[in-house]
From TrEMBL:
Designated name of the protein: Sema domain, transmembrane domain (TM), and cytoplasmic domain, (semaphorin) 6D
Residue ranges of domain Sema in the record: 1-472
PANTHER family (alphabetical): SEMAPHORIN, SEMAPHORIN-6C
Native source organism of the sequence: Cyprinus carpio (Common carp)
GO-annotated biological processes: axon guidance; neural crest cell migration; positive regulation of cell migration; semaphorin-plexin signaling pathway
Keyword presence, Glycoprotein: yes
Compartment(s): Membrane
Pfam families, A to Z: PSI, Sema
SMART domains linked to this entry: Sema
Comp. bias regions, Low complexity: 339-351
Length: 489
């Protein structure tokens, strides 16, 4: 097989659409699942393959430097199950670095999930294949996240063929800490979740997802976005309560809304960044959309991690019986040490392990995982709102080469962060774009600032008063342009 690239005539954005055969007449398709960047390499997980692109050479064409092929051997068994034949492939759903030398991958494996370890540089398999249950979903459309933290693999997905048992799971840690999971078939813990992101930060692993809101008591099902956290040193509960289950699992609603007389909510989380700094404070930024039966719209909201922690240290929410409304738990009804605490820290500092927590604490956390308050967005409003439709599935920024890789289901495109060459010899257009990557050379040409470029004798310096507002409008137009190109393919 060979690969197929496509160059857009309008903006010359290189594209990768997967492997082609028979002299380019037969295209297998990409079926993009996820991508990660490790140093100067971009790893693209797709159907039956992982494509490795060298970012230093992927300027004019996106051509894989390495291709890992992992096809399922269980195709015949998959067909017998009577499911959609499109699922009888190996969709690579987990692709995370295990350490500096090893890449951990899991695939649906034709409805029989499996995991493998590969050498990062050579893509050679290391060791035996592992069972993928609770680490990887069964079908390509099912959501999942995974991250290694402290030697353990933290995953969130479904554990069964029918997708009825959603789970947040810890495994592969060897001896020391047990395998842990969320409580099975308990809608207070998880209710039809769609997992988006997992991140390690401090003493915790945070999970971001959307789910059917158990606290919404009105008619119909309503989706809320959530952040949940677990302690990395969680060892599970006692033999009586929460044995081999999380003792630190807490979750809260993420509030991305436009304020006013009546708030307009963007309730459905679609994607999320890793931890970054905003105003010198750790934060995450996510894309949210409206409910599926609502007016279509999307927004970008940011959340400070210390605001998330403040909510987790606040009041719990409870429903006394199935007919009553949800209300805050009075402080005098919350046992000690505080439920959700990590052993050896805070009010649980006198406990060396969570298995020693009193049954009253374990019983409380089992029935009260939901916090009362929502996490407010930065500035209590979205950073960006839009009503345009998007089908972007993944983004990866290549700062060094001034490019953004945009993933759609059928293709990956490389969008330059600036198009200074378009302004060629027009000084006014060059300087008035307010593009921080464009400079006007004294030789009479508009050019990109190369990484590390620092020679003021060669260019004019342009100062403007409101870079952020200009950049915001440029970002929107750039995304409109890029998504429009890929939507036609």
């Amino acid at each position: 097989g060979t690969w197929n690239t496509l160059t857009w005539n309008s903006h010359r954005c290189p594209s990768f659409q997967g492997l082609v055969f028979n002299n380019g007449t037969e295209r297998l398709g990409l079926d993009y699942q996820r991508m990660i960047r490790i140093q100067h390499m971009l790893y693209i997980a797709a159907r039956d393959h992982v494509f490795v692109v060298n970012l230093t050479t992927a300027v004019d064409k996106i051509i894989p430097q390495q291709i890992l092929t992992w096809r399922s051997t269980d195709v015949s068994k998959c067909a017998v199950r009577g499911r959609n034949s499109d699922e009888c492939y190996n969709y690579i759903k987990v692709l995370v670095p295990r350490n500096d030398e090893t890449l951990f991958a899991c695939g649906t494996n034709a409805l029989n999930p499996a995991c493998r370890n590969y050498r990062l540089r050579t893509l050679e398999q290391v060791g035996q294949e592992l069972l993928g249950q609770a680490r990887c979903p069964f079908e390509s459309r099912q959501s999942n996240v995974g991250v290694f933290a402290g030697g353990h693999f933290y995953s969130a997905t479904v554990t069964d063929f029918q997708a009825s048992d959603a789970v947040i799971y810890r495994s592969l840690g060897g001896e020391g800490r047990p395998v842990l999971r969320t409580v099975k078939y308990d809608s207070k813990w998880l209710r039809e979740p769609h997992f988006l992101h997992a991140v390690e930060y401090g003493n915790y692993v945070y999970f971001f997802f959307s789910e059917i809101a158990v606290e919404h008591t009105g008619a119909g099902k309503v989706v809320y976005s959530r952040v949940a956290r677990v302690c990395k040193n969680d060892s599970g509960g006692s033999s009586r309560v929460l044995d081999r289950h999380w003792t630190s699992f807490l979750k809260a609603r993420l509030n991305c809304s436009v304020p006013g007389d009546t708030f307009f909510y963007f309730d459905v989380l679609q994607s999320l960044t890793s931890v970054l700094q905003i105003n010198q404070r750790p934060a995450v930024v996510g894309v949210f959309t409206t409910q599926t039966n609502s007016i279509p719209g999307s927004a970008v909201c940011g959340f400070y991690l210390d605001d998330i922690e403040r909510v987790f240290n606040g009041k719990f929410k409870e429903q006394k019986n199935s007919d009553s409304v949800w209300t805050p738990v009075p402080e005098e009804h919350v046992p000690e040490p505080r439920p959700g605490s990590c052993a050896g820290e805070g009010s649980a500092s006198s406990y060396s392990s969570s298995v020693q927590f009193p049954d009253s604490v374990l019983s409380f956390i089992k029935t009260h995982p939901l916090m009362d308050e929502s996490v407010s967005a930065i500035n209590s409003q979205p950073l960006i709102t839009s009503t345009a439709k998007r089908t972007v599935l993944g983004l990866e920024l290549d700062k060094e080469h001034h490019a953004l890789f945009v993933a759609f289901s059928s293709c990956i495109i490389r969008v330059p962060l600036s198009r200074c060459a378009q302004h060629t010899t027009c000084k006014r257009r060059c300087l008035h774009t307010h593009d921080p990557y464009c400079i006007w050379l004294r030789t009479g040409r508009c050019a990109d600032v190369a990484p590390g470029f620092n020679n003021p004798d060669l260019f004019y310096i342009c100062v403007w008063s409101d870079v952020m507002s200009a950049a915001g409008s440029d970002v929107n137009s750039a995304v409109d342009s890029a998504s429009g190109q890929c939507l036609t393919h």
